[in-house]
Amino acid sequence: MNQDSKKLATSFYGRVNAPVVERCRVNFCTDLEKSVLMSNFERRGWHQVSPDDEWNFYWASTQTCRNLFSVESGYRMNDNQMINHFPNHYELSRKDLLVKNIKRYRKELEREGNPLAEKAEVVLQGGQVVTRYVHLDFVPVTFVLPADYNMFVEEYRKSPQSTWIMKPCGKSQGTGIFLINKLSKLKKWSREAKAPFHPQLTKESYVISRYIDNPLLIGGKKFDLRLYVLVTSFRPLKAYLFQLGFCRFCTVKYDTSVTELDNMYVHLTNVSVQKHGGDYNSIHGGKMSVQNLKLYLEGTRGKAVTDKLFAAMQWLIVHSLKAVSSVMANDRHCFECYGYDIIIDNQLKPWLVEVNASPSLTSTTVNDRILKYKLIDNILSVVLPPEGVPDVRWNKQPNVDALGNFDLLIDEELIEKDEQTNVTSRGHKSHKNRTT
Description:
By secondary structure, this protein is α+β, with helices and mostly antiparallel strands. The protein has helices at residues 3-12, 35-43, 62-69, 90-93, 95-112, 149-158, 183-193, 264-267, 271-274, 290-300, 303-325, 366-383, 412-435; strands spanning 27-30, 47-48, 57-59, 82-83, 119-123, 129-133, 142-145, 164-168, 178-180, 206-210, 217-218, 221-234, 237-242, 246-249, 287-289, 336-344, 350-356, 406-411.
């Protein structure tokens, strides 16, 4: 590549408004024909090919990725190929495995005597005293059914007035979710699930979590946050947080009464649920930017507690990633953009609800399309080397200009280098003191 073309490639790298520049040919394939993907690939001058051809970059569904990495396929990627999922991404995105990995992570830290696993007694709203993790209490109390049924019953009986939310482990977009506040309702569901006309339900696991019944409300309505987290490596852990997340609002005002327990327009923030409601606004899509949420909280609660909340959300994300880093198949050909769903309670405490391996790239509003276009553009800029061609030999340390709207959450490789530098510099100082 001559000097002029190098300059063009560098100026093009990570810029939304740059002209298309012909560089080394990049062949891409995808089984998700989303416009935000296609327009980003085409703007970079990439060429679409089929999965059977020689490809460099594959934006695949989770199922396609699993098939590609399966033992049966026997597929081996070369140094100039990259795909958008880790082989066992479900360790983080399946609801039951996420909870299992976080519980294991906390137990391991406890055994090591790590201060992060410190516990303390907490008084719940009903007066019940429970023991909670001080620093790692960021997922609601959760059990997997049917395996943990007896443990759930034991917990339920400690506070029988509590509400719990049931979710099928392998489904998304609000499918199959319901709330219960009586044990009899769970027993009824269990009997119906085993009925002859529902044979498939007997094989499916559910998670049941204590419902966050004191959510922070804005305009009387419940909302959650969708934050995008890009992971380029799990060992060492390298992760980035997209600044342009958003809040998703329910269309109906929050109501804890028993009569509204089955009204999903009150309780579920998923757009796939809310868009069917009569009060859904298709212009703003029931969404508000994270930046506007921050301004609202700074105005109503103060800057100090708002900053503390946003730091706690970053803490939550980093430790959920650390919880799976040891079990994730860390393939250098892979990266992944996860959709984190977080609920904030009225004490400004964030709770991790779930993590999505394939966050929706469908645009429901104009602002949605702009946001998701930027998201894909920034992802490509971070995961690709400066030359713009996939190469697993690259150290996965993008320059600052390439980050766009991403902020570095954690880079364990950089942390280790800094620690080594500090140890070396302290060694030099002590040696100097001894010789002077």
